[in-house]
Recover the amino acids of this structure.
């Protein structure tokens, strides 16, 4: 029996890998930027996570894939949709989450979950680049600015402008026109992020606004996107420490469930193990002839010497 499972989110522009031990603890994770659905990129992410953990693929008992290219990963034992995996991963990161907003490179989605973290309803935009990481990439190129600088620059906006088109191609033309009119980069970028927030709010409206709300995906690292979405929704967003790996974490957790179920007879449950540890630490003795987890009885102290003599005389 092997001691690790792996989840791989084979995204449209990045690959994410998470490795868990059989206790469900993250032992390694990796994010690789790879261009459009790249086999080389996902290979780099998997190898990076394995190297960080000091493992090889032979040490992995179960591999589950998700994301845009989930069916293209040869090492995967099973694959699941992004909706299922992102919900599972986000709720593992933030157990109280009731709504998940995920904005990735090629699509954006909102997922409503119940108190058990199960998907109740979802809405997804995957028909065009509107409101996605790709949308930001196109406009960053048009404005000659680094993608990582867009958020901070947009937060410096002083004037409210409006981008009327959410089509990346038409929005690019609109942005160039605004710059030609003399509008500043911060003001134009503020309008770009406000447009993304409006689009996201529309997706939220399709599943119902409820909190707490967790934001995952690469765009969650963009401060301006978070700010404008919070303004559009009127509620704060919770940001996990590593928002990009939510899908890979969910895939790994599903793989862990599957692997545990398959090897149930070989595993002692954490509850039973905790009970045994309590037994070992307690100042008590086991009653002979018990069944299952031993019953506990107080340790009987030795009687005084004179009383012990009387007991022996009666025997």
């Amino acid at each position: 029996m092997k001691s690790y499972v792996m989840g791989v989110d084979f995204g449209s522009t990045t690959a994410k890998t998470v490795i868990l031990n059989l206790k469900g603890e993250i032992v390694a994770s990796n994010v690789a930027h790879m261009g459009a659905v790249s086999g080389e990129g996902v290979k780099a992410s998997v190898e990076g996570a394995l190297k960080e953990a000091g493992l090889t693929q032979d040490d992995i008992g179960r591999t589950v894939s998700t994301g845009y290219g989930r069916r293209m990963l040869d090492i995967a034992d099973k694959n699941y949709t992004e909706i299922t995996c992102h919900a599972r991963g986000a709720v593992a990161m933030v157990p109280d989450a009731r709504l998940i907003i995920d904005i990735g490179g090629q699509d954006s989605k909102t997922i409503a979950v119940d108190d058990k973290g199960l998907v109740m309803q979802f809405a997804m935009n995957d028909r065009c680049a509107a409101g996605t990481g790709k949308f930001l990439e196109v406009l960053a190129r048009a404005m000659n600015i680094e993608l990582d600088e867009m958020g901070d620059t947009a937060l410096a906006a002083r004037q409210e402008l409006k981008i009327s088109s959410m089509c990346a191609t038409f929005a690019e033309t609109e942005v160039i026109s605004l710059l030609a009119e003399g509008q500043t980069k911060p003001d134009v970028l503020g309008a770009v992020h406000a447009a993304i927030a409006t689009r996201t709010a529309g997706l939220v409206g399709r599943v119902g606004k409820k909190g707490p709300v967790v934001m995952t995906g690469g765009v969650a690292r963009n401060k301006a996107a978070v700010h404008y979405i919070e303004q559009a929704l009127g509620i704060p967003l919770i940001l996990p420490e590593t928002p990009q790996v939510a899908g890979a974490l969910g895939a790994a957790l599903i793989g862990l469930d599957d692997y545990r179920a398959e090897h149930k007879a070989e595993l002692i449950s954490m509850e039973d193990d905790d009970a045994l540890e309590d037994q070992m630490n307690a100042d008590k003795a086991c009653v002979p002839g018990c069944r299952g987890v031993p019953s506990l009885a107080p340790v009987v102290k030795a009687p005084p010497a004179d009383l012990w003599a009387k007991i022996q005389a009666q025997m």
Observations:
- The CA atoms of residues 156 and 226 lie 14 Å apart.
